[in-house]
Amino acid sequence: MKTLILIFSLIFTQISQAQEISTVEITPNRSSKTQNETSTPSSNTYNSNWDMRDHRKLGAGIGLAGVFGQIGGVADINFDAQNAAQVGFGNGYGFNTFFAGWKTSFESQFVSPYITLGYSRWYNSDSVDLRGNSYILDQVLSKKELANGKIGVDFLLANLGVQYNQLDTEWIGNSFFLEFNFLYSTSRGALLPAASVGSIYYF
Questions:
Q1: By C-alpha distance, which of 65, 50, 46 is closest to 178?
Q2: Which terminus of the chain is less hemmed in, N or C, by CB atoms within 10 Å?
Q3: Distance between CA atoms of residues 75 and 89, nearest Å
Q4: Is 192 exposed, middle or buried (0-12, 13-18, 19+ CB in 10 A)?
Q5: Which CATH number fits domain 49-202: 3.40.50.300, 3.40.50.10490, 2.40.160.20, 2.160.10.10?
Q6: Best CA proximity match to 194, nearest among 86, 98, 68
Q7: Beta 190-202 vs 58-64: how paired, if at all?
Q8: Are 56 and 203 in contact (CB under 8 A)?
Q9: How many whole angstroms from its chain centre is CA 64?
């Protein structure tokens, strides 16, 4: 009888120890899982404009006025979080515009400043009277050249701008920009200010 009691006591002790070990092993795993779940960032939220640009490499949108003439399109190709190649085109009354440049954005959250350095060309191949159609062209072309309409004007371009970036919600990836354009005519030696507004969506 004593032997049976001893055996049952040993079995009960082993079962109790096994349960304690099992509890100790399982608890950290649950805790670890909880920590992993809480530390995983939401795929629908970015911490900054750099964070968004690091994940979304291509942006496409529209622009108004300034380097776009009247209206045009623009694309950003993000090489890293800070730097992007930018190309755009536009048209006005009787002329077209094109520009390409290197865009550097400064880290911020929703509103971020940026600068762009590049090249712009305003051109037209048709015989259209351009007098009074563009403040920029009026400053760098003669009345005779404007009346003829067949033009090709090159500019060195510098943009200073601010961009609002949507970093969360269902509108994530959208942005709106306001920039001041400075166009330097290499042929006339004139520096001309302008301004553009627009919107870019990043994929």
A1: 65
A2: N
A3: 9
A4: middle
A5: 2.40.160.20
A6: 68
A7: antiparallel
A8: yes
A9: 18
pLDDT of amino acid 47: 86
- Is 25 in contact with 32 (CB distance < 8 Å)? no
Which of 134, 72, 129 lies closest to 97 in space, CA to CA? Answer: 72
Both tokens assigned to 104? 């550097």
Hey, what are 29's tokens? 């795993």
Residue with tokens 């166009």: 183
pLDDT digits 0-9 by tens, 173-191: 899 999 999 999 988 889 9
**By the 8 A CB rule, do 175 and 202 touch?**
yes
What residue ranges do the domains of the chain occupy?
Answer: 1-42, 49-202
Residue spans of alpha helices (H) in 68-170:
135-140, 143-148
Prediction pTM value: 0.74
Q: Is 127 helix (H, G, I), strand (E, B) or coil?
A: coil
Burial of 173 (0-12, 13-18, 19+ CB in 10 A): middle
Is the distance from CB of 53 to CB of 202 less than 8 angstroms?
yes
